[in-house]
Amino acid sequence: MTELKDYRNLFPSLNQERGGRPPIYFDNACMTLKPQPVIDAILDYYNRYPACGERSTHWFAAQVDRGVEESRQAIGKLIGASSVKEIVFTKNTTEAINLVAQSLRWNPEDVVLTTDKEHNSNLCPWQELVERGIVSKHRAIPADEQNRFHLEAFRKVLEEEGGKVRMVSLCHSSNLDGTSIPDEVIREVVRLTRAQNPGAFVFLDAAQSVPHKVVNVSELGVDFIAFSVHKMCGPTGVGVLYGRKELLNDESVIQPFIVGGGTVEDTHLFGHPRYFKAPYKFEAGLQNYAGIIGAGAAARFLADVGPERIAEHERVLNRALTERLQGFPEIKILGPRDPDERSGICTFYLLKPATRFSDSEPDIDEKLDARANIMIRKGTFCVHSWYHAHEEQFDAFWEGFRPTLFRASFYLYNTLEEVELFASTMSRILEEIADLPTFAGG
Fold first, then answer.
1. DSSP assignment of 354-369
2. Are both 215 and 271 inside the same structural domain?
3. Is the pTM of this model over 0.70?
4. Has 52 been annotated as catalytic?
5. Which of the following is catalytic: 52, 124, 171, 382?
6. Beta strand residue intervals within 142-263, DSSP E
7. Which H or E run includes 374?
8. Poorest-confidence range of 31-45, 268-282, 393-407?
9. Residue 266 to residue 135: CA distance in whole angstroms
């Protein structure tokens, strides 16, 4: 078996330097880098058979069709789907969630539940349904004191809604702090949800889980999951919706909301079109063939590496960084105290209002990039709702200032040496901040 460290050489973007230093890429929760096998698969399409699939029967078209279906198989195998017909290609996680939100046949009294720290992609589509009067209510399940999924709070909300919950849509792993809902808890969520309403569904936003650990949809028993290929070593502009095939083909449950070319077997000037079976009836228009073929290469690459090895490697790196950052009294880490519960994400903020030194001087993330080519993320990470809901807890020591969140996120090609350089560079930056009047004065 190939050593994990040897896969690093397959990422050409890491084989370069700026200012005599290599890149240190800690922005993997946003997007992962691309290995050569994925790049080669995309180039192979454009160089050898850049034709349209699904329509023609000639030499090039047959290669396109074969490549797309091989990708469907590889992705289905990666996530434990029972059939390739359960794999629908979309542009990204956002489109996949919207597809379900807009395609399900809702009842006006239906209620949608999410967690209280959802990415905007798993919040806005459900809020829009409420705004348009399509469903009656959206409720957010409060997390526990360490920002983890709270099963008892979920159970309480289910009981309060008295059988009206139709959709439970949860972030499987949080892009805010890396916490995941354990498999046994997901299975219990499924059991409880169906017990209160046999016609209800459980949906997982798996954008931060599929690339980083073993996800088996058949064992979890969920109805839908969505994820983006650009977060799992694949190209941009390709996402995946998994749906149980019996649901995807039940017109009384779900109907495609984008229709036209590629979705229909036959049409007449008058009357209802005859649509293909899933997944094709949900894949309207000419597809991103190069991206989908690259997605299959990414799925095969991750299967070769081993999701369980990726998960353990990220835990090792997070333990090391957490230990170093806990030595800085100026820094507070978001989420559970145990780094093993935060997978490959370490989000932190400063305990005093000095993350921006002045209007003209760069912030911490910019200094890390300029000094050591260390790339991290700054902001609210598309979880604005959680940030606003917790402003009061920050006010206790920030005196009205809004803290800036910084996120370091790891992947299979990162190293302990990179973590050490990150920590030592941060130490020097914090020493500089300590001398500033804005920090010293609080």
1. -SS--SSS--HHHHHH
2. yes
3. yes
4. no
5. 382
6. 165-171, 201-205, 224-228, 239-243
7. strand 374-375
8. 393-407
9. 33
